[in-house]
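note to self — DONT lose this again. spent like an hour looking for the file last time. sequence + predicted structure for the chain T wanted, 505 res
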Amino acid sequence: MKIIDIVSKVKVDSKELLALVYTPGVAKSSTAIYEDYDKVFDLTNRSNSVAVLSFDYFESLKRAIYLKETYGADAYPLEIKRNELSDDEAARNKEIDFVIENIMPNFMGVDKVLIEGGAYDSEFDIPKRSKGCVLSGDMKIENLEPVELRRLLGGVTETNVFEVQGMFDNSYKPVAIVSDGSAVLGLGNIGAEAGLPVMEGKAVLFKDLGGVNAMPLCLKTQVPSEIERIVFLLENSFSGINLEDISAPRCFEVEQNLIEKLNIPVFHDDQHGTAIVVLAGLLNAMKVVNKDLAQVKIVFSGAGAAGQAIAKLLIKMRELISGEENGASAGGAGILMFDKAGVVYKGRKENDPSLEKMAEITNFEGFKGGLKDGIKGADVFIGVSAKGILNPEMVKSMADNPVIFAIANPEPEILPDLALKAGAKIAASGRSDFNNQINNSLVFPGLFKGVLENRVKKIDDKVKLRAALALAQIVSDEELNENYIIPDALDKRVPEGLQKIFQHV
């Protein structure tokens, strides 16, 4: 049978292309759209993308294939759950319109022919602004600026019609990369349209690194209950949900409620993908500096979604290492977390419920000073915050052979070369143009490949810990050194290694 296959216009097979398509290059396109939202039609594939909506996925798929083969439109089949809509026609139509309105940042239009009772081969009249690919045959993509690349290509993803053998498998449906644009990279709340280049870039990595179909679903709303409702109604259109760039603490609520409501796997990549790759990097970094992960002093800059998830997974691993079994006791010893309001401690007036929980499992000493004092004598710095937070003098005040993970994107808390010059033994960032890239692009393609192949419904802490260990073990003892603590994002061993963990889950 035929399916809609989501493919990349740029094959990511080098660090240079990774930097163009994803980080740090994608930030330039997102910034350009934020400054002028109309540029979304030039810098993404929105100008040729259409959502085909019906009450039956296979009818939508049939229509999408027809639109692609006949008109060249990149049509994405979507099913809305009819039995979850109101019996009242006016209320039902209102909710359908609500879904359509909020998914529009991704598409030129929504095709409602099937919902309105038309045939799959009815005339197609949604306007298009597609420019197609205008690259000359001898042009080197690597020589283009990120914004120019997307402008010339009209985004970096498109669809093909693909013939598959045998019965239809749910894994042929795409993973939805769901975002509301409220916390895009290190750029903040720049909106759904400006977040679209990032989600397209992630779709490319899903496909090129993991062989997984994925599509952006950038939503106009930033209300948690509305995000959840839209995803729930469209659940049957997807094989899994990858939540992305939703600000804390709303992201915790959205993730938990979707896990409870949906029958497909839900994974908040900013939290758990980042936590897995950071933990893997730390496991190997401790080998290089000959320190015990369960005993070192660790300072965080950033206590949002990523910071909290990293700390929680790190605490679980430290408890396993030290043999603690009485909850979050020893695992959080020696961990300080800082955010915009300063260090996190019990009863701090700026704490939301999630931060108060973090205060209960970290900062046992009740430290209330600033980052400058808190980092003195620290063995590890983990930055998931903003550019320039850490300066060379702070690095010099840390313990011997300090480890710096400055992974804010697109600009880190301190550039790796500055950290090394100040005395860091190991310096890592989230960027592909430096050694030791600590980026969740190492995790989600292979992890979802394994999840989908093995029909895993829930990605729990056991899976996350095994994923971190598997990722760390890919780097052999012979390969391991201060400039190579984590596999390269393009290392083919990574998705294979992450898929194998599901053989034991």
